[in-house]
From TrEMBL:
It comes from the Eukaryota. This is Calcium-transporting ATPase. The keyword Coiled coil does not apply. Its EC number is 7.2.2.10. Residues 95-190 form the Cation-transporting P-type ATPase N-terminal domain. GO terms for cellular component: plasma membrane. SUPFAM superfamilies: Calcium ATPase, transduction domain A, Calcium ATPase, transmembrane domain M, HAD-like, Metal cation-transporting ATPase, ATP-binding domain N. The chain crosses the membrane at residues 169-192, 198-218, 355-377, 397-426, 818-840, 846-864, 885-907, 919-937, 958-983, 989-1009. One of its GO terms (molecular function) is ATP hydrolysis activity. The keyword Translocase applies. It is found in: Membrane.
Length: 1037
């Protein structure tokens, strides 16, 4: 079986080729493609979407090409004509605006520089839409702006209603055949037996089909609602805007025309707009135009389009078009966006369903043939084949219905969909636990993760940073004491303090803004927040003249250069460049040092060594280290690069970022679960080692290495080195990508965390990419499979727990369903061969199908994870899905049920001394009742495949308990009150007790089976069957 599954039903968890997707679709055996393929992508629709995307990209490129030539005189007449088309309506004018929505939208989308200049440039546009660069728009104007210029949402296709799911469920081929059989049965029954008796058999089948359809549709509809809710969460993106004179965070869906949006590296441009001001703004327009080369945006080329991404730099933009007036909105509204790539487990279970279905089809045909042959032989001997009656037609129809129902039971349509159900349930629970799963396969794959490459800052640590120590002018000062700031002010000159504050405030991508309460609020990264908080305390009551410089050029921080630089125009004349970043890098750029009086001296070699020792001492105390330096220049040309040497060192900062509570325990849980945790950070190696030791990541035999050293290794050296690496410091995003690639080549299942734009390749390459929800950029989130909303390492472990739960729950469900399949097929086939009748009727088999399919999936696929799951090694991709343990349980339980049902079938009358006129009906009802109770108790058995105690935590899963209770109640109703439809008769209380007792023996059989070892090396000697050994003395109690 495994060989067949690997050959025909094997897809990778990420980036599956179209060929692999088409291969399994061609091999699958399916009765209801509408339902089975509802949660997998429609490859034809996907090709249509790609074609639409290319069409829009070509349209955008064409507009850009036209914009390049629009200044020519040949276009002047066209432009003049075009202007007449756009006239502000009375509604626009009465609201106080001076430009129509369509004209405003066309400026950015068509890159129409001429029209922009006619309106007075960006400043003129802002006046016409009553927006201020400094204060933004007024909150009270939002409804009017949305009414005239539109809302920032694109038209989405309406979601599927409940009745559409009912319609899907009705498309099952076997159910359609059964409905036809039922209608024929009713017609023939009315003709032969009259009303109402002649209707019972056919009506019973129709009612059973309707019950199956409704239960299936309810289950599928609930899943769709869960996915819809998760989809809404995926689309939640927040941006910084200036409104009412203050900077605030708003949802992209609340943006209006006129909003002043602040963009930084990794952001997605949320609407069409115009560039106001900024530094080194580099935009990736490939998602919209298809062009791979990024574009620099300046005042001369100010057009920004929704859906593009900020690759570098920062800027302010004014929104000119939102929603369906943007090319991005038009594109998104035309795409189907439905059908996420199928997961490996879904595909594998489609394969299992195919194998079982084909076997079931064979059994159904054989059963029908045997029943027909026996019927014809019996008729030929007793009556003759030339005499036919309406009752004969009903008998043949009944046999055909039984054969078709065997196919319904045998083809587990719900098996692949059970994966979707389990994943949807897990994703909903993970959402509550601060993990947003973007791709279904990630949750499943995380259960097999054998390695986690994690960032340090914000993931292992709290990301709440404060300046703990500073080295300045040969002084090292700790800020634990309350009077530390006053001491620092007393020990160094005003000139040095002013230079230090200027370097912090000017060389920062963060902002200090006053809230409505008048208090200072810092908007920016945690590192810069720590520096600015320190600077505000040091500044005290001083006049903030050090903030009055005009910036000439900015080089934003990125993880490759590991520094940020700025050139400012000094009020006294001349220019000054500031640089801050990784300590070792900044010290290498310096050849001078400033003393306490503000005098500059050469940086001698011995002094540089002393400073490096101070940096290492800070790092050894688990502090992040950062250096600040400056260089004065008489002249500066905008085309020149910011200097990279000749700087004067001002200060070394030691920034404290404590380890998150619970991280040490989470790392320990990973190690117990067979998951290796590796820290990959851009920080100093001593800081990284100190934090890694505190978290329990770095062990005595582990290796800590720096990125530059790692990059020098050849492939053979890397192969030998990588298994030992536990910490990689001063790493580049490329190092992370290289590490992930090599680990995957070693057959590791790798999860990797990332937050920056440059982390996107590693997130994409990894088996599971985990982006940070707080610190992560939109580019990183888009490349990730899971977004960790609270940036917490313990949340990542929770994803692994649920991933393992999904895999184990599906195995439980498969084990349960295989047992029911085997027993139902063999019982009906053997009975047909020996007695010429089938003890389980079509209605009864439909009820059993619902127990094992939809209800069974709900009960077993929604079991929450337990701690035991994280005390076993991860399941490797090469391991068989249906394990020896599962086969042991299926064969053992199947044999028991077959023996019990066979005994009742062939010797029930004699053993139980049933001498009533309807003895056969009583025995058949008893067989049906016993069979159902065997499944009820086997369902409880399936909660644990290896452990004896199957009742542990049963009441914590209310879904499971409710389904077991409902199954029992419905069984009582069917047997006692719906006999006319279900071909049953009421049973005495003794027979009810017998049914329950025979079913409950499954629990004892299950316990015995679990003591039979079938997988070498899996026996737990210390904890047999998952239990602690009996204490041997008082100390063990």
């Amino acid at each position: 079986m495994e060989k067949y599954l690997r050959e025909h039903f094997d897809v990778p968890p990420k980036n599956a080729t179209e060929e692999a997707q088409r291969k399994w679709r061609a091999a699958v055996f399916v009765l209801n493609p509408r339902r089975r393929f509802r949660m997998v992508p429609n490859l034809e629709k996907r090709q249509e979407d790609e074609s639409k995307r290319r069409s829009v990209q070509e349209k955008v490129r064409e507009k850009m090409r036209v914009a390049m030539y629009v200044q020519h005189a040949a276009f002047q007449f066209m432009d003049a004509a075009k202007q007449k088309e756009y006239k502000p309506t009375e509604e626009v004018i009465s609201a106080g605006y001076a430009i129509s929505p369509d004209e405003l939208a066309s400026i950015a989308s068509a890159h129409d520089m001429k029209t922009l200049e006619m309106h007075g440039g960006v400043e003129g546009i802002s006046r016409e839409i009553r927006a201020s660069f400094d204060n933004g728009v007024s909150t009270k104007d939002l409804p009017a702006r949305q009414k005239i210029y539109g809302v920032n949402k694109y038209t989405e296709k309406p979601s599927r209603s409940f009745w559409m799911f009912v319609w899907d469920a009705l498309h099952d081929l076997t159910l359609i055949i059964l409905m036809v059989c039922a209608l024929i049965s009713i017609v023939v029954g009315l003709a032969t037996e009259g009303f109402p008796k002649g209707m019972y058999d056919g009506l019973g089948i129709i009612l059973s089909i309707l019950l199956v359809v409704v239960v299936t549709a309810v289950s599928d509809y609930r899943q769709s609602l869960q996915f819809k809710e998760l989809d809404k969460e995926k689309k939640k993106i927040f941006v910084h805007v200036t409104r009412d004179g203050s900077r605030q965070k708003v949802s992209i869906f609340d943006l209006v025309v006129g909003d002043i949006v602040h963009l930084s590296i990794g952001d997605q441009v949320p609407a069409d707009g115009l560039f106001i001001s900024g530094y080194s703004l580099l935009i990736d327009e490939s998602s919209l135009s298809g062009e791979s080369d990024p574009v620099y945006i300046t005042r001369d080329k100010p057009f920004l389009l929704a859906g593009t991404k900020v690759q570098d730099g920062s800027a302010k933009m004014i929104v000119t078009a939102v929603g369906m007036r943007t090319e991005w909105g038009k594109l998104m509204s035309t795409l189907s966006l439905g059908g996420e790539d199928e997961t490996p487990l879904q595909v594998k279970l489609n394969g299992v369903a195919t194998i079982i279905g084909k076997i079931g089809l064979g059994f159904a045909c054989l059963t029908f043939l045997v029943l027909i042959i026996r019927f014809l032989v019996d008729k030929g001997i007793n009556v003759g084949l030339l005499k036919w009656y309406p009752e004969d037609a009903l008998t043949i129809l009944d046999y055909f219905a039984i054969a078709v129902t065997i196919i319904v039971v045998a083809v587990p349509e719900g098996l692949p969909l059970a994966v979707t159900l389990s994943l949807a349930f897990a994703m909903k629970k993970l959402m509550d636990d601060k993990a947003l799963v973007r791709h279904l396969a990630a949750c499943e794959t995380m259960g097999s993760a054998s390695c986690i490459c994690t960032d340090k800052t914000g993931t292992l640590t709290t990301n709440h940073m404060v300046v703990d120590k500073i080295w300045l002018c040969d002084l090292t000062k700790s800020f634990n004491a309350k009077d530390a700031i006053e001491d620092l002010n007393a020990l160094i000159s005003e000139n040095v303090v002013s230079t230090l504050l200027q370097g912090i405030f000017e060389n920062s991508s963060s902002e200090v803004v006053k809230g409505k309460d008048g208090k200072n609020t810092i908007l920016g990264t945690p590192t810069e927040t720590a520096l600015l908080e320190f600077a505000l305390k040091l500044e005290g009551e001083r006049h903030p003249q050090h903030r009055a410089c005009e910036k000439a050029k900015v080089e934003p921080f990125n993880s490759v250069k590991k520094r940020m630089s700025v050139i400012v125009n000094l009020p006294s004349g001349g220019y000054r460049a500031f640089c801050k970043g990784a300590s070792e890098i900044i010290v290498q750029m310096c050849d001078k040092i400033i003393d306490g009086e503000g005098q500059i001296h050469p940086l001698e070699e011995y002094k540089a060594k002393e400073i490096l020792e101070i940096i290492n001492s800070f790092a050894s105390d688990a502090l992040r280290t950062l250096c600040l330096a400056f260089i004065d220049m008489e002249e500066y040309n905008e085309s020149e690069e910011i200097p990279t040497d000749g700087y004067t060192l001002i200060a070394v900062f030691g920034i404290k970022d404590p380890v998150r509570p619970g991280v040490k325990e989470a790392v320990k849980a990973c190690i117990e679960a067979g998951i290796t945790v590796r820290m990959v950070t851009g920080d100093n190696i001593n800081t990284a080692k100190a934090i890694a030791k505190e978290c329990g990541i770095l062990t005595a035999d582990g290796l800590a290495i720096e990125g530059p050293e790692f990059r020098t290794k050849n492939p053979e050296e890397m192969k030998e080195l990588i298994p030992k690496i536990q910490v990689m410091a001063r790493s580049l995003p490329l190092d992370k990508h290289t590490l992930v690639t090599n680990l995957r080549k070693m057959q590791e299942v790798v999860a990797v965390t990332g937050d920056g734009t440059n982390d996107a390749p590693a997130l994409h390459e990894a088996d599971i990419g985990l982006a940070m929800g707080i610190a992560g950029t939109e580019v990183a989130k888009e490349s990730a499979d899971v977004i960790v909303l609270d940036d917490n390492f313990t949340t990542i472990i929770n994803v692994a727990r649920w991933g393992r739960a999904v895999n184990i729950n599906i195995q439980k469900f498969v084990q349960f369903q295989l047992t029911v399949n085997v027993v139902a097929l063999v019982v009906n086939f053997v009975s047909a061969c020996i007695t010429g009748t089938a003890p389980l009727t079509a209605v009864q088999l439909l009820w059993v199908n619902m127990i094992m399919d939809t209800l069974g999936a709900l009960a077993l696929a929604t079991e929450p994870p337990n701690d035991e799951m994280m005390k076993r090694p991860p399941v490797r991709r090469s391991e068989s899905f249906i394990t020896r343990i599962m086969w042991r349980n299926v064969i053992g339980q199947g044999l028991y049920q077959l023996i019990i049902l066979g005994t009742l079938m062939f010797a029930g009358n004699k053993i139980l001394d049933i001498n009533e006129p309807d003895a056969d009906s009583v025995v058949n009802t008893l067989i049906f009742n016993t069979f159902v109770f065997c499944q009820v108790f086997n369902e409880i058995n399936s909660r644990e495949m290896e452990k004896i105690n199957v009742f542990r935590g049963i009441f914590r899963n209310w879904i499971f308990s409710a389904i077991i209770l409902l199954t029992v109640i419905f069984q009582v109703v069917i047997v006692e009150f719906l006999g006319a439809f279900a071909s049953t008769v009421p049973l005495s209380w003794q027979f009810w007790v017998l049914s329950v007792v025979l079913g409950s023996i499954s629990l004892i059989i299950g316990a015995i089976l679990k003591c039979i070892p079938v997988e070498p090396g899996r026996k737990n000697v210390e904890k047999p069957n998952g239990y602690e050994p009996i204490p041997s003395g008082p100390d063990g109690v």
